[in-house]
Amino acid sequence: MGAGHAHKLYRHGHSPVHALPAHCKIAAVFCFVLIVVSTPREAVWAFGLYALLIAAAAVAARVPAGFLLKRLLIEVPFVAFAVLMPFVAEGPRVHALGLSLSESGLWGAWNILAKGTLGVAASVLLAATTELRELLLGLQRLRMPPLLVQIASFMIRYGDVITDEMRRMRIARLSRGFEARGVRHWGVLAKSAGALFIRSYERGERVHLAMVSRGYTGTMPVIDATTATRTQWTRAAALPLAALAVCLLGWTL
């Protein structure tokens, strides 16, 4: 984890949110999502306040609204599932626009959309202000099992390597006049997938042998051991603490 690795969700900047240590932001987002999920679905106004908190964090991070909204498209499959719930759920029915909808299904759809959207928005904001290397180091500082951190690190680092290998194999097929047009060509694609698996496995073995020859004993060295100050923890806690106040009001009002 010594070198950086850029990703499309990250937006380079010098905002106060960017300056916070990764483990502070991870803990803040995790607590925020737990609080949102714990909020009763009937407290509709509370989710509006949560959205305002996310918007305030995005302004502080200098992340444009268009950037955030575009990344929220990842939850489209969940939106499609939520839209179907009022039609397939059982229970008392309500009529709107000539449609017979399940009351429990409507509440369930609202629950999924509201909480899912807020959780995805918080996660996108975290990814937009934190590099992948910092995220991994932050998870390590939060005492996540080292083996899981290493697996995630290798997946991130060698995902691009495998993608490039797939691209080279595709170019090689095209240069030989091959173009998949039907079921008859599935055999060639299956052989290409098998060859890709073997090459990836062999590459992994070579990487492991190279690491062992350099003294790898099962743990990765921590190059950046920066710790968070009390002020940084306080700033990171502002979002979940404000959300907690809203949640408590949602349960009492």
TrEMBL record:
The subcellular localization recorded is: Cell membrane
Q: How does it sit in the membrane?
A: Multi-pass membrane protein
The keyword Transmembrane appears for this protein: yes
Known CDD domains for this protein? EcfT (cd16914)
Question: Which keywords label this protein?
Answer: Cell membrane, Membrane, Transmembrane, Transmembrane helix
Q: Where are the transmembrane segments?
A: 20-37, 43-60
Q: Which PANTHER family does this UniProt record tie to the protein?
A: SLL0384 PROTEIN (PTHR34857)
Name-wise, this protein is Cobalt ECF transporter T component CbiQ
| Organism expressing this protein natively | Streptomyces endophytica
